[in-house]
Amino acid sequence: MKVGTDGVLLGAWTMPSSYPHQILDIGTGTGLVAIMLAQRFTRSQIHAIDIDQASAEEAQFNAQSSPWSERLNIAHCALQDYNPSNKYDLIVSNPPYFRNTTQYQDQARANARNNDSLNLEYLVEKSYELLNENGELTFIVPSNEFETIQSLAEKFNFYISKLCWIKGNHQSLIKRLLISISKRKDILEENSLTIENSRHNYTEEYRDLCKDFYLKL
User: Fold this and answer.
1) Is residue 194 within 8 Å of 26, Cβ to Cβ?
2) Whole-angstrom distance, CA of residue 56 vs CA of residue 186
3) 165-207 tens-digit pLDDT
4) Alpha carbon of 214 to those of 8, 148, 195: distances in Å?
5) What's the alpha-carbon Rg for the chain, to the nearest Å?
6) Which pLDDT does position 56 carry in this prediction?
7) Which class would CATH give 5-212?
8) 173 partner at 20 to 30 Å CA-CA among 6, 47, 119, 140?
């Protein structure tokens, strides 16, 4: 599977209020976000799961090829079947976006993009169970899901702590939302980010956020 900008943004933007010793990446895909977090948080243990076996195997290969392999644990597992013995300080996810879409011929890509296998409500509900009392859930979604997330946060006793509205370029509409929700109520931090000035000409703010994760940017 290809590495997408959404994953890069999620891995670079995630910044919990306290140091995350135990991290879970739900729907890891290539393992990109898990590996980025292993690079950033050098004392953390990172677990990553994916419902698709081929994706989990690819993530395992990428993790083992990284300098942080000893702190990365990849498993082929659906979130519905995941019952670890420990609680997490931080959960991250780049969840499926498309609702009620026609299934793709490529089933792995379908699982990654269609929320039949993982919807936002279950992601939030299960994350509350898996997080410790100070834990946070950070994820990236289409911006039009904001009201849904507000409702889900209230339903499952979370508080929205951080928001970042994402535009592809200065002329485009806001299409993505980076969001952190926490079990603790904090002062809301809200900002915005534009990725490009023009095609492949990245803004200074995007470069500053992501420069540590590109060989050339």
Assistant:
1) no
2) 35
3) 999 999 999 999 999 999 999 899 999 999 999 888 999 999 9
4) 10, 33, 14
5) 16
6) 96
7) alpha beta
8) 119
In 57-72, which positions are buried (b, 16+ CB within 10 angstroms) versus exposed (e)?
ebbbebbeebebeebb
**Which residues make Cβ contacts (< 8 Å) with residue 123, sequence separation at least 6?**
26, 79, 93, 95, 137, 139
Question: pLDDT per residue over 75-92, tens digit each?
Answer: 999 999 999 999 999 999
Which regions of the chain are under pLDDT 70? 1-3, 97-118, 217
Question: 124: which strand partners?
Answer: none
Say what the pLDDT of residue 106 is: 52
Residues in contact with 113: Cβ distance below 8 Å, sequence separation at least 6, in sequence order: 96, 97, 98, 101, 104
Token pair 């393992």 is found at: 31
Give me 138's structure tokens. Answer: 């950070």
Backbone angles phi, psi at 200, to 5 degrees: 65, 15
